[in-house]
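Course exercise 7: structure representation. Students receive a sequence record and must write out the corresponding structure in token form. The form below is the worked example handed out in class, using Alpha/beta hydrolase (296 residues). Read each field label carefully; the graders check that inputs and outputs are placed in the correct fields and that the protein name is recorded exactly as given.

STUDENT ID: A-19
EXERCISE PROTEIN: Alpha/beta hydrolase
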Amino acid sequence: MPTFLRRAAVVAALALAILGTRPTPAQDAPPFQLERSAVHTVVSKAVGRTYQLYVKLPPGYGDPANAGRRYPVLYLTDGDYTFQVASGVTRLPHNAGKLEHVILVGLSYAQGEDGMVSRRRDLTPWPNPSLPSPTGGARAYLDFITKEAIPLVERQYRADPARRTLVGQSFGGLFGLWVAFTEPGHFESYILTSPSFWYADEALHALEAAHAARHKDLKARIYMATGGFETVKPGAKDPRYNKTNDMVGAQGAMARRLGSRKYPGLKVRADVIEGTVHETTFPVGFVHGMTWLYGG
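STUDENT ANSWER:
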């Protein structure tokens, strides 16, 4: 074979080898899927919008030995974010037997809507003129959860209706405390990180006082966590501190108020997660809350 043909053959072979090792184009690659997971679409009559429920079952759920077993269920608001975090951080503890096995249910944002628009409406109990509309749709959203989402989950899966946990961060934490003070019978426990105590001129504190005036008990386990930087420190050089809204102080005040009620059926824990800001508190706080509620 002439020299130039040999060289051409070598070049062609190298080109084929290089092309053969190129990554598969993104549009041709299969999506990553969580094991033991499913997605249910709910066209809600309660709110007139469509939501998805992201469900992940614990290891061993399908084993014949567990056929009669019912599991606690965690309902996670802001599910487009919180479900992925919860799935990841519970995987190893579940497999290692360090956490009681639970079913995870992520509650999506309304389909076809921007996530911030959806959560600002659905997770806020009262209108707030200082924020972009709409706000104050928590009542209808709670109807969706309690009348449509929960019944679907409890029909389809071996869920323990006496052991429901509501999980929320930021507006979701606000929503969770509002639920606890207005309709506490729906959930047995709560994991709430960085609750928006500041919302609507700190109306949560007035709501808590109103509940205390009418009731002698609050049967719930409530875990709260706020980041160490979610407080105001005038003169601090670290830019991670809040400029407004002392959420650490507000959480402490709420925990003290609840403790002062001496409710026989209430257990409260409030942690400050050192080193986290508003956007990073949830993963750590969620793990702490899970350990407190479901630690083996």
